[in-house]
């Protein structure tokens, strides 16, 4: 059955200086039950070494589901160091009760040929697969859209997932800004595990300037994802410009209302 209304979530980037208990409280005040925690980001629990058991307890007390730990950086630049990072983050994600681990590619490709870049991506996915499988985690691959990125498009990520027979282990992150930046038209709803609602406000990329915390083209992308059968969370991934807001909770509530009203008006 098609999901008719977005299930919103909150990314720790929205309020990086809040400890996890305060972050969970902020989410619950907005009626949200899904939260992403980040590594490393200011008061992020992983960066500060907060025991995963404490994070899990705080989430349980607040009625929060930790949908992801974000993120294993440069995952497709596979080295012994990256392998250790992947294992440590996967252990932390499992211990705190997270469902997924976000995988972010190297944003500047240092590989001389396209075939080498593709080979490195597939090799990394094959190496990450058993790390995730043994812990019951899903890996969320987040193409970044930038021309300099070593993994720019969801199409390329989807092809790599198929090549390593990874459909049961990997999903895609659809970021509304990165999607627009990459110039993609295909949504890959069936392979999408998380949507990031970007707050980037650049008139080069957004159609409507009068958004709150939600980027201007978000509404049409959200509607298309829902129409395509996506039924997962839509997480507010907010950039630096919102961290100085006096009333983040009010702005977040306004954003949720703005998107919901926009979806209703398009019916």
Automatic annotation (TrEMBL):
GO molecular function: isomerase activity
Keyword Disulfide bond: no
Entry keyword set: Isomerase
Pfam families linked: AP_endonuc_2 (PF01261)
Domain Xylose isomerase-like TIM barrel positions: 24-260
Keyword Isomerase: yes
PANTHER family: 3-DEHYDRO-D-GULOSIDE 4-EPIMERASE-RELATED, ISOMERASE
Protein name per UniProt: 2-keto-myo-inositol isomerase
